[in-house]
Every structure is written in C-alpha cells, then in structure tokens.
C-alpha cells in the first residue's frame, strides 16, 4: 500500500492510499489533483473519507462521486454527498484494511479522525492516522465551532496512539508552526534539528508530512502542556493556572495572534 500527499490549493494535502489498483482519498477539497493522480497511477477510486465540513476538505466531493463510491463522513456534521455517517468506535473496511473512527472535536464540533492500526499485507506496518485539521506537525487546528476543552481532549487522545503512527494532517503549516514552537520552548533541543529537516524538505518542494506521534510528542507544544518550559511560557501569556487545560488554551490563543 502506498500513501501519497496530493497538494491542493495553497497548503492543503489530500491524502491518497492505494494498492496499485484501488485508491481511497481523504478530504478532497478539490477534484483535479485526485483525478490526475488516479490517471497517473492507473487507479480506481473506491472510497472517500471526510474528517469535517470545511469546504477545503469537501468541495471536490461532487465531482468525484460520479460512480457509486462510498463517502464516509462525521455523523454530527451536515455535509452534502456523505453516504455513510460514522462516529466514535465505529470501523469501516476498505480493501481488507480495518479503519477505526475516532471523535476528535474541537476544530469543528463533529470532527473525526480515521486510524488504520496495522496494514497486514504490506512491508510497512506502521499505523496511519488521518487527522484532518485537528493535529498539525508542531501545531494544531484553530477552534472554530468546537471548544477549547474539546480540542485539548482530542489531542490527548491522538497523543495516545502508538509512537510509530504516521500523522497525516491536512495542511502544510509545519515551518510556521515551528516558529511558534520555538517561541514557546526556546530550549527544546529537538526543535532545531526538526526545523532543519523540514526546511530541507520544503526547499525541495516536498511535504513535511506525514509526521509521527513520536515526533509530535517531541516538538509539538500543544502536546507538551506539562513540560516546565511550556507551562512557564503559557503563564507569561495569560494562562490562568498551570493546569494542562489552561496551558493549552493560553497557547492556542497566543498562536492565533503570533
Ligand atoms: Fe478545517
Ligand atoms: Zn482545512
């Protein structure tokens, strides 16, 4: 199975998983990059997964739906074109792979993530998580129609996935997130090396994603709300106390205007 990040708009990725014959895509905000990749690799689209209702994740659905392709999406959001509404704890099966649905509200009130916990028929066994706009590399989504507390709980859930899990986020925000991460944690020794690695990828126009849960636990301030340096930075930026929830909320608000 192959995992591809198809660039869309200015900084979106539409994730495609394929086995040389069948493909699934996640959050097709545009149809054109998907159609091009299908043609290029000689693939048939046989499933679409949607994480949340924002147009940059859904606007390509109509043009891709011409066949009878199942389109999975969040039970608690109204999205035109969804054929299978799914929610927490449910699974779907695609090409012999079991895909688990997790509720990860916060960016939007009904946001879901999809996790393939192992891929038995391939050499590469690491799990894959399609996290939409919940978790980014070195950052996280903004709070739109969900709440700050929901987003904190959702990120805590994602943090508990196995370290090797490949994090497939929907936007290339890594370098700007790293600038913020360095302001929060100037003494985190992992940030510098990761930034150099990501700058080299971007200089070659390559995605910095997927990341891994292991990497995110090391570099992402939003997953590090109990680290002393993160706590003290948050307290200097309006956190009402040193609880992880208050630290998280202060970081998220600070980032909005950074
Ligand atoms: Fe979004
Ligand atoms: Zn988005």
Task: Describe the protein in words.
- The chain is of the alpha/beta class and 258 residues long.
- The chain is globular, with a radius of gyration of 18 Å.
- Helix content is 33%, strand content 24%.
- The chain contains 9 helices and 14 strands.
- The strands form 3 sheets. The chain has a 6-stranded mixed beta sheet, with helices on one face.
- Strand 2 and strand 3 form a beta hairpin.
- The structure holds fe (iii) ion and zinc ion.
- The site of zinc ion (ZN) has 6 residues, from helix 2.
How do you describe this structure in short?
This protein is of the alpha/beta class. It is 33% helix and 24% strand. Helix 5 (174-184) packs antiparallel against helix 6 (189-203) and helix 8 (228-236) packs across helix 9 (244-256).
**Count the helices. How many?**
9
Order of secondary-structure elements = EEEHEHHEEEEEEEEHEHHEHHH
Domains, number: 1
CATH architecture: 4-Layer Sandwich
At the fold tier of CATH, the topology name is Metallo-beta-lactamase, Chain A
Mean pLDDT: 96
Radius of gyration, Cα only, in angstroms?
Answer: 18 Å
The number of strands is 14
Largest sheet: 6 strands, mixed
Which geometry do the CA atoms define? globular
CATH superfamily membership: Ribonuclease Z/Hydroxyacylglutathione hydrolase-like
The distinct ligands, each listed once, are: fe (iii) ion, zinc ion
Helix content: 25-40%
Task: Give the neighbour order of strands across the main sheet.
Answer: 1-2-3-4-5-6
Strand content: 15-25%
């Amino acid at each position: 199975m192959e995992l591809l990040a198809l660039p869309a708009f200015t900084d979106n990725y539409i994730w495609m998983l394929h086995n040389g014959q069948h493909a699934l895509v996640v959050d097709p905000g545009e149809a054109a990059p998907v159609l091009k990749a299908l043609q290029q690799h000689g693939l048939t689209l046989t499933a679409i997964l949607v994480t949340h209702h924002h147009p940059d994740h859904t606007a390509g659905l109509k043009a891709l739906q011409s066949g009878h392709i199942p389109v999975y999406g969040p039970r608690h959001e109204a999205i035109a074109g969804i054929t299978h509404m799914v929610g927490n704890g449910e699974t779907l099966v695609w090409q012999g792979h079991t895909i688990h649905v997790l509720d990860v509200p916060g960016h939007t009130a009904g946001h879901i993530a999809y996790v393939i916990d192992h891929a038995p028929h391939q050499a590469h066994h690491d799990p894959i998580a399609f996290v939409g706009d919940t978790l980014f590399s070195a950052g996280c989504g903004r709070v739109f129609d969900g709440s700050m507390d929901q987003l904190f709980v959702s990120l805590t859930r994602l943090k508990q996935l196995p370290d090797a899990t490949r994090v497939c986020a929907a936007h290339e925000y890594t370098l700007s997130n790293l600038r913020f991460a360095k302001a929060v944690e100037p003494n985190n020794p992992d940030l510098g090396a990761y930034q150099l690695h990501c700058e080299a990828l971007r200089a070659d126009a390559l995605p910095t994603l997927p990341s891994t849960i292991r990497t995110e636990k090391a570099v992402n301030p939003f997953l590090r709300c109990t680290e002393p340096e993160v706590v003290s930075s948050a307290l200097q930026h309006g956190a009402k106390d040193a609880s992880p929830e208050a630290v998280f909320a202060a970081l998220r608000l600070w980032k909005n205007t950074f």
